[in-house]
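[Automated response] Your request has been received and processed.

Submitted sequence:
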Amino acid sequence: MTDPSPFDLPERREPAFNVPAVVVALGAVLIAIHLVRYHVLSVPADNEVLVLFAFWPVRYVPEVLASGSAPGGLAADAWGFLSYAFLHGGTAHVLFNLLWMATFGSALARRFGTARFLAFSALCAIGGAAAHLATHFGEAVPMIGASAAVSGQMAGALRFVFELGGPLGAIRRTDPGAYRIPAVPLLRSLTNPQVFGFMAVWFGINLLFGLWSAPLTGEDASIAWQAHIGGFLAGLALFPLFDPVRRW
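Generated structure:
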């Protein structure tokens, strides 16, 4: 038997499940909440969850807000801007959001790290709720779903994934450094045909659903497209504040 050569390097194996741990954990939380709501809680108990944790524009009517008479009081008025993102209207709804989070959220999580990623996603969810409130003020119809947060993740990832050397760039890297490519200023990034095309299609689809008012995921619910846009715009605005990579 011959001794192994020092030049015989061990075979490198790619991980079978190459999604950042924070994205996996967040997805698991969303799935767990959905399973508990639909398979453990009774209908009255689930309705109570919706009353306390969905985003209800009617809560913020001045008379209701001042009196604190809505279920859960002022505390629910505050946490509703974020807690709605952990609830979904059906299996297709949650799976659709998980798919896009695994795609774009993973890229952003690799760049930001766990704490920045979670804080950024939370603020994008709040931005989506604010946009929904501005366009549905006083309505007594709840909004749920992580779509605004995921839209913000898309916007954040868009700032670097299509750059030269980025993971989806015309000339791309395949190592972890692909997620550390400096981001160019926003207006300059719009001169990239890939970035501009993605944004044009994304905004077009959301505006189409706004005019058509048709369900996107097969569930019997309308699309909160204003929240999507609010989350996306929040992501574009917040990205430079969270980005740990030195600017271009």
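Summary generated for your ticket: Confidence is low (pLDDT under 50) at residues 1-16, 214-220. The two ends are 54 Å apart (CA to CA).
If you did not submit this request, please reply to this message.
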